[in-house]
Write a structure and sequence with these properties.
4 helices; 7-stranded antiparallel beta sheet; alpha+beta; OB fold (Dihydrolipoamide Acetyltransferase, E2P)
Amino acid sequence: MRWLLVFLIGLASFSHSSEARACSCMKLTPAEGLSSAYAVFIGEVTKIEPNTATKFGGIEITLRVSEVWKGEVGEQVEVRTAGTSAACGYRFVKGERYLVYADRDEADPMRVSLCSRTALVANAEEDLDFLGKPTQELGDASARPKSNDRKARRRDNCSASPGPGEHAAFGWVLLLFAGAALALRRIA
């Protein structure tokens, strides 16, 4: 009877846990980032708004593009990213300029994640040096930062904190040990 009670309490405690999502990526070199991206460009964020079309509440970012190295990109482009860093969402700030490495598939327009080499232009010196002269300049192509202005941003493996579902798994393990202890106690 006691075993059944412990099991039911544990089941009730963990049955409503949220889905676990976590972001983990390998560091890409500028060459790998360029090769794997659908588009690479510099853009200034003009608008950030929720994207209600996705299940997990992503974000849609509108950028005014000034320089393009890869892809079919107009003067204005919209990219999507996940709503949280746990789901690899990249945090954009309105008014800031970014070097964007965007992916694309049939179901989505361009999207950006923490796993790409997307960075503030001021922190993208290594990438800008590698990319060289853009293949296309649009609108106001402001001068990029000089090499002695700021150090290039170093991207280590990106990872995010565990989602709530991972804590639930820990709870299930504890519940299993508690049940085993009760069963052994009953046998003894």
